[in-house]
């Protein structure tokens, strides 16, 4: 459905390191050129340093593609290993079948392989990804591998790729001999707003998109800020924003949709929501705090709606306080779905506390709350916010809770409706 809606051949914001989706920002082009030149000139050790999600692995795959046919290569991902395991992974990656367990024999097999390749005129390049995870002893083993050389050249070259932690470790005096052997050191920089826009265009085009702009300039700026210019974060945000827009039937994605996608991606927001929705017996102090917090956070643009909402809230609160004083009964407010302004979508407003269900009473009111419709609200958004889904069962529950509505899909600003809440676990 997602692909059909946007007329795409494939998913443009996947998580796999597909070389064809690699976007060549200025720092990516510079890094690729540096590594390519270093390998072509036989510089020995090379290093690529970048934050997680910047596309290091994709860049290495692109480099391998350009070197295809001219080198023998091994690509090592298993970096949480000791020296012996590292050598065995290396031999396996080079296609050398070795069951040896002794380091001396493993070195001997590697040396024999390298001499054979050198005699045949073939270069050998080893890529070690996530190199920051290598232990000090494994890094020392990597350094010792540089001793495999002929009189006129290195028998093979090693490319270390890792996160900034790798650079910090290489500055350690204990690894000075290794860092001194690194002839080419390059890195990747986060994307600015202009490059983020080009990055999104590039991936959509590769995926087959041919149409008007999907993301507005404002939404791109928000994506850049939230992602910190890191391609993997951009992918996650764009995927969620396009999925949400698809469900809403919108092919144009503005800041409101991106912000809602960011809220969905926020773990802090999910934790806070689950805590609030899970409360079934808030104290009087909590009720007052939530109500006052709502008044402080939500100043509505429309005076008419503001007056209606404020009157409804004060009336509900007065009823609550009066009933509480007279009877001393703690009323249930199951699933009061109130969020701070920073944690909820801008189009969603806070709700009134519902106090219609008495103690021990399992009524519809104990599983729902009253909500005042805000601008840009839709039933789909509200149900997704309050209960996490929108299906036939939810629509049936809405009709039951709102018998006054002839059509539950048609709501108006300022209108009071009742919404179901997600049951507490």
Jot down its keywords.
Helicase, Ruva Protein, domain 3, Rossmann fold, 48% helix, 425 residues, 17 helices, two-stranded antiparallel ribbon, 7 strands, elongated, five-stranded parallel β-sheet, alpha/beta
Overview in brief:
Helices cover about 50% and strands about 10% of the residues.
Number of helices: 17
CATH homolog superfamily of the largest domain: P-loop containing nucleotide triphosphate hydrolases
Secondary structure: helix percent: 40-55%
Low-confidence stretches: 269-312, 318-365
How much of the sequence is in beta strands?
A: 5-15%
Q: Which CATH first-tier class of the largest domain would you pick? A: Alpha Beta
Biggest sheet features: 5 strands, parallel
Which fold name corresponds to the CATH topology of the largest domain?
Rossmann fold
The total strand number stands at 7
By secondary-structure content and strand pairing, the structural class works out as: alpha/beta
How are the strands ordered across the major sheet?
2-3-4-1-5
Average pLDDT, all residues: 77
- Report, as a whole number of angstroms, the end-to-end distance: 32 Å
Order of helices and strands: HHEHEHHEHEHHEHHHHHHHEHHE
CATH architecture of the largest domain: 3-Layer(aba) Sandwich
What's the structural domain tally?
A: 3
């Amino acid at each position: 459905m997602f692909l059909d809606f946007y007329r795409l051949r494939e998913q443009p914001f996947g998580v796999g390191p597909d070389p064809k989706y690699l976007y060549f920002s200025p720092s990516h082009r510079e890094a690729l050129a540096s590594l390519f030149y270093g390998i072509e000139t036989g510089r020995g050790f090379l290093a690529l340093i970048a934050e997680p999600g910047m596309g290091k692995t994709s860049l290495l795959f692109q480099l391998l593609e350009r070197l295809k046919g001219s080198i023998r290569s091994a690509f090592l991902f298993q970096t949480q290993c000791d020296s012996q395991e590292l050598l065995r992974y290396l031999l396996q990656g080079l296609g050398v079948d070795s069951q040896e367990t002794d380091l001396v024999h493993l070195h001997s097999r590697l040396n024999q392989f390298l001499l054979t390749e050198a005699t045949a005129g073939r270069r050998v390049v080893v890529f070690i990804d996530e190199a920051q995870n290598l232990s000090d002893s494994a890094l020392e083993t990597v350094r010792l591998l540089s001793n495999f050389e002929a009189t006129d050249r290195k028998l093979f070259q090693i490319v270390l790729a890792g996160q900034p932690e790798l650079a910090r470790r290489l500055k350690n005096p204990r690894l000075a001999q290794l860092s001194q052997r690194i002839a080419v050191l390059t890195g990747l920089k986060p994307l600015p707003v202009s490059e983020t826009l080009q990055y999104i265009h590039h991936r959509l085009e590769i995926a087959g998109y041919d149409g008007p702009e999907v993301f507005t300039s404002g939404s791109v700026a928000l994506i850049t800020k939230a992602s910190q210019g890191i391609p993997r974060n951009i992918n996650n945000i764009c995927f969620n924003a396009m999925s949400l827009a698809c469900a809403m039937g919108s092919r144009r994605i503005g800041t409101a949709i991106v912000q809602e996608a960011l809220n969905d991606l926020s773990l802090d927001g999910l934790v806070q929501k689950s805590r609030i929705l899970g409360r079934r017996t808030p104290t009087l102090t909590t009720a007052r705090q939530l109500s006052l917090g709502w008044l402080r956070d939500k100043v509505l643009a429309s005076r008419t709606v503001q007056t209606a909402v404020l009157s409804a809230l004060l009336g509900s609160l007065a009823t609550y306080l009066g009933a509480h004083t007279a009877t001393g009964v703690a009323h249930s407010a199951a699933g009061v779905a109130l969020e701070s302004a920073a944690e909820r979508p801008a189009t969603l407003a806070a709700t009134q506390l519902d106090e219609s269900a008495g103690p021990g009473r399992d009524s519809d009111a104990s599983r729902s709350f009253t909500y005042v419709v805000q601008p840009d609200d839709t039933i789909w958004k509200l149900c997704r916010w309050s209960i996490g889904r929108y299906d036939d069962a939810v629509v049936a529950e809405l009709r039951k809770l709102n018998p006054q509505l002839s059509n539950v899909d048609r709501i108006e600003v300022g209108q009071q409706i009742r919404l179901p809440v997600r049951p507490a676990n």
